[in-house]
């Protein structure tokens, strides 16, 4: 049974159609990439799945429950949580307290919540900064802090919105390893990403949006050879370059 099913989802803002009849599913334990050009509707789709928007039509099923009209809080309590494209740390609170916000979603006892938060900070290589103010962290560390806060909720599904944007090449490699580590711990991931060299080698499946429409869905090897995807997003030269990044070895 899929962990997440998006069925014929349409999201309109007046006459603007941000998502148009989008359908796909995610099986437990997968890393699924959600890609496409700027303005394709990726973040709008995230907002619908996570309860920040209610779609104009269609259906969202998470863990065998119809959550189409659920609030963001209700969906998070069920185990579907997300990060944001623009990082949103609680700047005047410590790194530990930021992660405690996530931990308290599932654990009300302070001592146990602190234990969960520290485990998540260590997993995201932020333990030494637990008492620092979140606003003092550089951007790469703030991205990891969002992941730690999300992980502290005990998610079944983590949705990462451009978690690698603005990072150095070293930080991107660390983020990729962290995503794989989270998946190996039993968490399913849906990842919006523009850095194809990072997401393509680790994704089990890729969904491609363009102009609010789903134009392709499948394994990375098929996606980078899809003529419609090449024309709308990747470009011929970049598609050829991606074929040399290790995707073949992963798929075979």
Automatic annotation (TrEMBL):
The keyword ATP-binding applies. Residues 4-236 form the ABC transporter domain. InterPro entries: AAA+_ATPase, ABC_AA/LPS_Transport, ABC_transporter-like_ATP-bd, BCA_ABC_TP_C, P-loop_NTPase. GO terms for biological process: D-alanine transmembrane transport; L-alanine transport; L-isoleucine import across plasma membrane; L-valine import across plasma membrane. It comes from the Bacteria. Keywords: ATP-binding, Nucleotide-binding, Transport. This is LivG3 protein. GO terms for cellular component: plasma membrane. GO terms for molecular function: ATP binding; ATP hydrolysis activity; L-isoleucine transmembrane transporter activity; L-phenylalanine transmembrane transporter activity; L-valine transmembrane transporter activity.
């Amino acid at each position: 049974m899929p962990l997440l099913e998006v069925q014929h989802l349409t999201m309109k803002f007046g006459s603007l159609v941000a998502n148009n009849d989008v359908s796909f599913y995610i099986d437990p334990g997968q890393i699924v990439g959600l890609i496409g050009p700027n303005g394709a509707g990726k973040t709008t789709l995230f907002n619908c799945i996570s309860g920040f928007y209610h779609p104009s039509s269609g259906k969202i099923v998470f863990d065998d429950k119809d959550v189409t009209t659920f609030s963001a809080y209700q969906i998070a309590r069920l185990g579907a949580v997300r990060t944001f494209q623009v990082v949103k740390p609680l700047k005047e609170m410590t790194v530990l307290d930021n992660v405690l916000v996530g931990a308290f979603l599932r654990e009300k006892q302070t001592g146990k919540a602190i234990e969960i938060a520290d485990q998540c900070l260590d997993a995201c290589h932020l333990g030494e900064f637990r008492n620092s103010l979140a606003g003092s962290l550089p951007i790469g560390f703030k991205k990891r802090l969002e992941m730690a806060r999300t992980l502290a909720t005990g998610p079944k599904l983590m949705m990462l919105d451009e978690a690698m944007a603005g990072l150095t090449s070293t930080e991107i490699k660390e983020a990729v390893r962290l995503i794989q580590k989270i998946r190996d711990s039993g968490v399913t991931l849906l990842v919006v990403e523009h850095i194809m060299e990072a997401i393509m080698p680790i994704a089990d499946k890729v969904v491609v949006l363009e102009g609010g429409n789903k134009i392709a869905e499948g394994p990375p090897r098929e996606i980078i050879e899809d003529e419609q995807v090449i024309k709308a997003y990747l470009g011929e030269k970049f598609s050829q370059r991606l074929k040399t990044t290790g995707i073949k070895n992963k798929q075979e």
